[in-house]
Amino acid sequence: xxxxxxxxxxxxxxxxxxxxxxxxxxxxxxxxxxxxxxxxxxxxxxxxxxxxxxxxxxxxxxxxxxxxxxxxxxxxxxxxxxxxxxxxxxxxxxxxxxxxxxxxxxxxxxxxxxxxxxxxxxxxxxxxxxxxxxxxxxxxxxxxxxxxxxxxxxxxxxxxxxxxxxxxxxxxxxxxxxxxxxxxxxxxxxxxxxxxxxxxxxxxxxxxxxxxxxxxxxxxxxxxxxxxxxxxxxxxxxxxxxxxxxxxxxxxxxxxxxxxx
Length: 261
What we know:
Elements: E1 3-10, H1 26-42, E2 47-54, H2 65-73, E3 77-86, E4 92-100, E5 104-111, E6 121-129, E7 132-140, H3 146-167, E8 176-180, H4 190-198, E9 205-207, H5 209-212, E10 229-233, E11 238-244, E12 255-260
Parallel strand pairs: 1-2, 7-8
Antiparallel strand pairs: 1-12, 2-4, 3-4, 5-6, 6-7, 8-10, 9-10, 11-12
Helix pairs in contact: 1-2, 3-4
């Protein structure tokens, strides 16, 4: 069995706890990304699912944040899933991303809609770990509309059905889904809908809620009152350990999951 450490983290465009990234200079953005890189390195993550990360955006420095993190974490494999593209003088390009110690052998990005700004989506990757090929979906859902989240969850389920039919023969485990679901922890929403879907196939664990019975809050990071950030793990993942990391580098706290496959 191989030990794998998975981190899911909404890094909030590297603005820290500030109101908006436009209020940060390029130098401060770089410094914030360096602190995030140091945190990822300290946590010894093998695979990192990032949300709200910029490829090249005017509002926070006009440089590739994923490339910067790749160079400063020592994780050599990286893919970007851009869901928002605005060209021209006021250029904005951002979405989700995956950083990995192991090769990413397949990738597919899916946007949930066609808005130029504020669009959410999911990044599907297959990571070639020492235990075999691991399918991973990094997802970011709508922040305010329950109906939108339910539609996005249905989109995700349909997508996974297609991937199972086409690619499951290559997988060493069932798909892992993680990210910022933006689901209030006190209401049945996309989180419960997805868990019901996964349990048709396997005995999935919803983290950080599943192990201790109650959800561990992840937002806002300074005084967490809501659980927004989750990981769905199939039963192939054994000896699970979970940490909601106390960190104030974003308005979300990162969730670290260690398991053996």
